[in-house]
Amino acid sequence: MSYLLKRIAFYLFTAWAAITINFFIPRLMPGDPVQALITRARGQMTTDAVQSLYVLFGLDKDESVVEQYFRYLGQLARGDLGMSFTFFPTPVAEVIGDGLPWTVGLVGFTTVLGFLLGTAAGTLVGWRRGSLADLLIPVTTFLSSIPYFWLGLLAIALLTGPDSFFPATGAYDTSLVPGFDLEFIGSVVQHGILPAATILISSMAGWVLSMRNMMVTVASEDYVTVAHAKGLPERRVMVGYAARNALLPNVSGFALSLGFIVGGTLLVEIVFSYPGLGLLLFQAVGAQDYPLMQGIFLVITLSVLLANFLADLAYLALDPRTRREG
Amino acid sequence: MSDAVLEIRGLNVDYGLGADAVHAVRDVNLTLHRGEVLGLAGESGSGKSTLAYGMTRLLPPPGVVASGEVLYHRDGGDPVDVLRMDHAQLRAFRWAETAIVFQGAMNSLNPVHRVSTQLTDVIKAHDPRSTTASRLARARELLALVGIAPDRLDSYPHQLSGGMRQRVMIGMALALEPRVVIMDEPTTALDVVVQRQILRQLVDLRERLGFSVVFITHDLSLLVEFSDRIAIMYGGRIVEEAAAADLYRDPLHPYSDGLLHSFPALRGPRRELTGIPGAPPDLRSMPSGCSFHPRCPRAMERCGVEVPVLGVPGDRRGSDRTVACWLHPVQDNRF
């Protein structure tokens, strides 16, 4: 229990450090947000408008960095991440709130599914080493070394087109009104298949490989031989003894990949113009939209931390050796 | 001697297939009698463990049993050949008839399951109709048998000492009351004090429960003390087999003699410690004739040419010991 408390304290500290860095980095960059907006408006702004922008961004007062820092913390606590330039005057929190469900829905679902399928396949392939199942290995090596955005481009080039079932861009048919009706959900699924398959194929291959390799290592452990010698059913030896131990290194890898759900598949979202956080980040970088970038980085950092925390919990549950008494 | 439980006939175990195969166990004949402790001794690489894995069909690839029979004598039934059982028969045979305690005391228990789980899953696998409560009761009984407090059932392996883990393994081996227990260097990883405690316990248990033991070790001094008969292996063959006392007093094969002179006796007259010069042979390129002859202090011309056959030596007619050495040629039945 004290172990868990220590971990929680560690994560709180890391989160604070991340937030602080997130505050300072934009302030170390040259220029200010108003200048960026003025550039975007190509000079078609009155002095009054410029002045009101300075007030809006809180840059009119002569605040010290410390004062700004505490005001920033206060705003964060209220969920206020500032205004986005690109989607001016929508608040950043709202922009992120619109993009997040798409990313979590698409990438989250495929990450979890890819892990489950890949681990199951890796278990079987590793267990039947030397059989025909080994033929899967070169295929997965190939698939896992392909960048997934390239796979996405390939899918778009080959499978989409005027008469194709698969749309090339977007997350749903824009002529529909978003809502929980059959037509809209059907459209979401139809738009999601290609990007999901792209991510699934390349991420699954990696899990197959690592799980297969761990299975081969664990299969020669003494306790697996003992399990055979005990005359246990094959399934029980494979699942309860070999896979249960081979899984452990994969679990931490999985938790890390959960953390990268939010930011890690930027390229797939760009390729498919999928309106998730990745595409937002891309747009924010292109438009020098610092508040939006800052907000997205914050979400990415926090989700990586959360995923790490989940990995710690999973390890505690799965490996008794990490549970320290006392 | 009492009747046989396990009979190994002409067992050959290779690593690899075809012309490049390494013959790790050659033409081994060995009989385990009811209730006896049969010691199997030899240097590292002499094929002891391969023999144990081969006869239980646990050999990891590329090991293959090339030929031979392992006959198991059931109570009042025909002997069955372990090497020719199908999967279901083999699964039912394992642990219920022949249990094994492995070399690695530290790694034989699954680190992620509790002791209770690992003791009860074997009972469940062989007797699916048993209840959870009865299995737990049996697990508690088994721990008591090997002198471990029943509250250790809820422990994970890493919470136990090396000696306790090996005790748990011995308890586990007795879970289904097997008639044969194969012990492959069961105490090698433990210190001598714990080693002795565990062996004492084992001898007691054997007297109470009446199972037979195949005890594999490189430590001949242990065998002299704890076993009834001893078989000495060298280069994949059995070179001498005799009652423990006979072998200790009067080793016939120069290799057995060398092994016996590589540890000091605690009592009795002082003897010189000699050891055996040289190293065990490379199994890929075995010497011609008797594989021990390059290291043998008493090698003759004949030793490098002809392989000696294991048999009752002519100069010990009528004894129940066998040796494969040209110093003690097998008695010729033609005369």
From TrEMBL, chain A:
<feature type="transmembrane region" description="Helical">
    <location>
        <begin position="188"/>
        <end position="209"/>
    </location>
</feature>
<keyword id="KW-0812">Transmembrane</keyword>
<feature type="transmembrane region" description="Helical">
    <location>
        <begin position="7"/>
        <end position="25"/>
    </location>
</feature>
<dbReference type="Pfam" id="PF00528">
    <property type="entry name" value="BPD_transp_1"/>
</dbReference>
<keyword id="KW-0813">Transport</keyword>
<feature type="transmembrane region" description="Helical">
    <location>
        <begin position="254"/>
        <end position="275"/>
    </location>
</feature>
<feature type="domain" description="ABC transmembrane type-1">
    <location>
        <begin position="100"/>
        <end position="311"/>
    </location>
</feature>
<dbReference type="GO" id="GO:0005886">
    <property type="term" value="C:plasma membrane"/>
</dbReference>
<dbReference type="InterPro" id="IPR035906">
    <property type="entry name" value="MetI-like_sf"/>
</dbReference>
<feature type="transmembrane region" description="Helical">
    <location>
        <begin position="139"/>
        <end position="159"/>
    </location>
</feature>
<comment type="similarity">
    <text>Belongs to the binding-protein-dependent transport system permease family.</text>
</comment>
<feature type="transmembrane region" description="Helical">
    <location>
        <begin position="295"/>
        <end position="318"/>
    </location>
</feature>
<dbReference type="GO" id="GO:0055085">
    <property type="term" value="P:transmembrane transport"/>
</dbReference>
<keyword id="KW-1133">Transmembrane helix</keyword>
<keyword id="KW-0472">Membrane</keyword>
<dbReference type="InterPro" id="IPR000515">
    <property type="entry name" value="MetI-like"/>
</dbReference>
<protein>
    <submittedName>
        <fullName>Peptide ABC transporter permease</fullName>
    </submittedName>
</protein>
<feature type="transmembrane region" description="Helical">
    <location>
        <begin position="102"/>
        <end position="127"/>
    </location>
</feature>
From TrEMBL, chain B:
<dbReference type="InterPro" id="IPR017871">
    <property type="entry name" value="ABC_transporter-like_CS"/>
</dbReference>
<keyword id="KW-0813">Transport</keyword>
<dbReference type="GO" id="GO:0005524">
    <property type="term" value="F:ATP binding"/>
</dbReference>
<keyword id="KW-0067">ATP-binding</keyword>
<dbReference type="InterPro" id="IPR003439">
    <property type="entry name" value="ABC_transporter-like_ATP-bd"/>
</dbReference>
<keyword id="KW-0547">Nucleotide-binding</keyword>
<dbReference type="GO" id="GO:0016887">
    <property type="term" value="F:ATP hydrolysis activity"/>
</dbReference>
<dbReference type="InterPro" id="IPR027417">
    <property type="entry name" value="P-loop_NTPase"/>
</dbReference>
<comment type="similarity">
    <text>Belongs to the ABC transporter superfamily.</text>
</comment>
<dbReference type="GO" id="GO:0015833">
    <property type="term" value="P:peptide transport"/>
</dbReference>
<dbReference type="Pfam" id="PF00005">
    <property type="entry name" value="ABC_tran"/>
</dbReference>
<feature type="domain" description="ABC transporter">
    <location>
        <begin position="8"/>
        <end position="260"/>
    </location>
</feature>
<dbReference type="InterPro" id="IPR013563">
    <property type="entry name" value="Oligopep_ABC_C"/>
</dbReference>
<dbReference type="InterPro" id="IPR003593">
    <property type="entry name" value="AAA+_ATPase"/>
</dbReference>
<protein>
    <submittedName>
        <fullName>Dipeptide/oligopeptide/nickel ABC transporter ATP-binding protein</fullName>
    </submittedName>
</protein>
<dbReference type="Pfam" id="PF08352">
    <property type="entry name" value="oligo_HPY"/>
</dbReference>
